[in-house]
Amino acid sequence: MIEKIKILELVNAALDGSDKYLVNLKVTPDNRIYIDIDGDNGVTIDDCIALSRTVENSLDRNDEDFALDVSSAGADQPLKLTRQFVKNIGRDVEVVCFDGQKIEGQLTAANDTQITVHVPGTKKQAPRDVTLLRSDLKSTCVAIKF
């Protein structure tokens, strides 16, 4: 089985010095490698291809066969890293807390421990800023509106 730490080292070395960063890495027992990346200025298909080639050229298929999937962190996937939260400041988000509370509004601040969401007003409630601990968040997704 291909070791996850080896893939992690390859990915980190390949992304070092760029605005791209690893969001998720999964290596299954049957050597399927899934890599999700993001970037402070987005990710292009060329970014994914370059990383895929780097990882593939660093592994020997004669030692172990593998399948490799490199993709950008999808818009439908929850934000995980502080860099992702910071990148999305100013965008509308949907937050679900572990206690079941749901909050929708504009992400206005984020750091390693908390986020702030500006919730627009309604007829019954004035607009307000809600600050939440990141440890209380079950998921935070960018709201996709058409």
Could you name the key traits of this structure?
GMP Synthetase, Chain A, domain 3; 5-stranded antiparallel sheet; SH3 type barrels; 2 domains; 38% strand; 146 residues; alpha+beta; 3 helices
Tell me the CATH topology of the largest domain: GMP Synthetase, Chain A, domain 3
Level-1 CATH class name of the largest domain: Alpha Beta
Tell me the strand percentage band.
35-45%
* Estimated radius of gyration: 18 Å
Please provide a written account of the structure:
The protein is built from 3 helices and 8 strands; from the N terminus they run αββαβαβββββ. The chain is 22% helix and 38% strand. The chain folds into 2 domains: 4-72, GMP Synthetase, Chain A, domain 3 (2-Layer Sandwich), CATH 3.30.300; 82-142, SH3 type barrels, CATH 2.30.30.100. Helix 1 crosses helix 2. The model has no long low-confidence stretch (mean pLDDT 96). The chain is an alpha+beta fold and 146 residues long.
What is the gist of this entry?
The protein has helices at residues 4-15, 45-58, 82-87; strands at residues 20-27, 32-39, 67-72, 92-97, 102-110, 114-119, 128-133, 137-142. With 146 residues, it is α+β, with helices and mostly antiparallel strands.
Q: What's the topology here?
A:
Blueprint (H helix, E strand, L loop, with lengths): L3 H12 L4 E8 L4 E8 L5 H14 L8 E6 L9 H6 L4 E6 L4 E9 L3 E6 L8 E6 L3 E6 L4
Parallel strand pairs: 2-3
Antiparallel strand pairs: 1-2, 4-5, 4-8, 5-6, 6-7
